[in-house]
Design goal:
Aldehyde Dehydrogenase, Chain A, domain 1, 23 strands, binds nicotinamide-adenine-dinucleotide
Length: about 500
């Protein structure tokens, strides 16, 4: 049995106490046994971080950047093996796993510019003989708590900017697929990172609570479901930490009557069913505008959904693989039943799907609902599975109002040829990431990623310029030299007049 412990002070260490099984979702078999750590394991990680961080912060940023240049090269060299390891615990296809790794790698490329990104501001002559300047310094020790669905990308979104800024970083990955985060930590050491700067502590709520309560951890980044994001945000604030916490989503795609319906249908299939719908930027609601658009779109969608190819990650021809756990499979199937009870029209029913030769795997056949309404649970809840809901809207204003009124605000898209409609939509919508004829508008590394409403708690986003702000503190220095100082004490408030 493959036993996974923690990665502390530059090496893998064993765990003690509670454990959890890690599954291969393709077969339903146990792939590894994971240690579930707690406060004492975290303490070892913090001790190593405390010892290593000051020297790392004092290392000039160009040298820190070079570690990431080497790390990017190592990721490319190890791409196939990393992708297979990722797929084995997550279930997504190997090609999709490469995308997961590459989206993280791109943030590592972005932070290779850290000498420029961390530059401060300088005002010469802010007063008589006075210069004023602001510098960015690392927070010290940061922590990241990550979800199962992007076990390479999201850890890198967090640790790359944190470490490049001069912090030590403690990662608590998902207990469903911890092997790739452990490999990433090893590769960072191979790339030249001093030990103690990146550590992986495995565990569940107990480890998260220990992180939130630890007085030496100054900043916490979280990605996962909304109830846990809200809890982590509140607890981090209660303990005086800065926090950015990203939650769940229900992403709509509006299809206007003038849209190219073939393009829109293809976009919905890829964005709705790719990665078995287990993406926070997956499109889960299609909103055709007008009955004629809805009927024509359904005619195009139904055969495409029916012919989706499901398979284990080892099948290079599969469109998507199993979902992550048996519990996820049961939850998704339960919600599909609920949709039928509530009166939605299940136009494609994938519930009976069984993967031949992999009967114990966690597969869910593709489902397509029509005539879903905003009151239904399948509309309000994030299903996080291969299920697309179609909500028919009378007109543009009704279509716009649907994502506007939904509690989540991660991503949204509009498909149209009409520039006026697209511009109006992008301007009025209360959602963080907007696509115009782009179904999954995930910003690239040099922009920032984050939703609005209950998809995000905190005011700074992931990667891009926001990440540099999140992982540093600003210090402003006001300086003058003896030739600029007038003699005599000054008792009134200093002002510039
Ligand atoms: P999850 O909330 O179950 O777990 C996320 C992390 O929180 C894990 O590390 C887990 O160990 C920890 N955790 C779980 N329960 C906890 C508890 N009670 N107390 C403290 N910590 C706890 O999420 P998941 O199922 O791993 O991931 C899927 C969710 O993540 C979806 O809702 C998806 O939309 C969301 N997500 C959001 C984004 C985004 O950027 N907004 C990106 C990816 C995924």
């Amino acid at each position: 049995m493959n036993e996974i412990g923690h990665f502390i002070d530059g090496a893998r260490v064993g765990g003690s106490g509670r454990t959890a099984d890690v599954f291969n979702p393709a077969t339903g078999q146990i792939a590894a046994r994971l240690a579930l750590g707690g406060a004492s394991d975290l303490e070892r990680a913090v001790e190593a971080a405390r010892a290593a961080q000051p020297a790392w912060a004092a290392t000039n940023p160009q040298r820190r950047a070079r570690v990431f240049m080497t790390f990017v090269a190592l990721l490319n060299e190890n791409m196939q093996a990393l992708a297979e390891l990722l797929s084995c615990e997550h279930g997504k296809t190997v090609e999709d796993s490469k995308g997961d790794i590459i989206r993280g790698l791109e943030v590592c490329e972005f932070v290779c510019g850290i000498p420029h990104l961390m530059k401060g501001e300088f005002n010469e002559g802010a007063g008589p003989g006075i210069d004023m300047y602001s510098i960015r310094q690392p927070v010290g020790i940061g922590a990241g708590i990550t979800p199962f669905n992007f076990p390479a990308m999201i850890p890198m979104w967090m640790f790359a900017p944190a470490i490049a800024c001069g912090n030590a970083f403690i990662l608590k990955p998902s207990e469903r697929d911890p092997s790739v985060p452990m490999r990433l930590a090893e590769l960072m050491i191979e790339a030249g990172l001093p030990k103690g700067i990146l550590q992986v502590v495995n565990g569940d709520k107990e480890m998260v609570d220990a992180i939130l309560a630890h007085p030496e951890i100054g900043a916490v980044s979280f990605v996962g479901s909304t109830p846990i994001a809200a809890h982590v945000y509140a607890e981090a604030a209660r303990h005086g930490k800065r926090a950015q916490c990203f939650g769940g989503a229900k992403n709509h795609m509006i299809v206007m009557p003038d849209a190219d319906l073939d393009q829109a249908a293809d976009a919905l299939i890829g964005a709705g069913y790719g990665s078995a719908g287990e993406r926070c930027m997956a499109v889960s609601v299609a909103v055709p505008v007008g009955e004629a658009t809805a009927n024509a779109l359904m005619d195009k969608l139904i055969p495409k959904v029916e012919s989706l190819k499901i398979g284990p990650y080892t099948d290079a021809g599969a469109d998507y693989g199993p979902v992550v756990t048996k519990a996820a499979q049961e939850k998704i199937l339960g919600l599909i039943d609920r949709g039928i009870e509530e009166g939605a029209d299940l136009a494609v029913d994938g519930r009976a799907f069984r993967m031949q030769g992999y009967e114990d795997g966690f597969y869910v056949g593709a489902c397509l609902f029509d005539r879903v309404t905003p009151e239904m649970e399948i509309y309000r809840q994030e299903i996080f599975g291969p299920v697309l809901s179609v909500v028919r809207a009378r007109d543009y204003e009704e279509a716009l109002s649907l994502p506007m009124r939904h509690e989540y605000g991660n991503g949204v898209a509009i498909f149209t040829r009409d520039g006026d409609a697209a511009r109006d939509f992008a301007s009025r919508i209360n959602i963080g990431m907007v696509g115009v004829n782009v179904p999954i508008p995930t910003p690239l590394a040099y922009h920032s990623f984050g939703g609005w409403k209950r998809s995000s708690f905190g005011d700074l986003n992931q990667h891009g310029p926001d990440s540099i702000k999140f992982w540093t503190r600003t210090k402003t220095i006001t300086a003058r030299w003896p030739s600029g100082i007038k003699s005599g004490a000054e008792f009134s408030m200093p002002v510039m007049r």
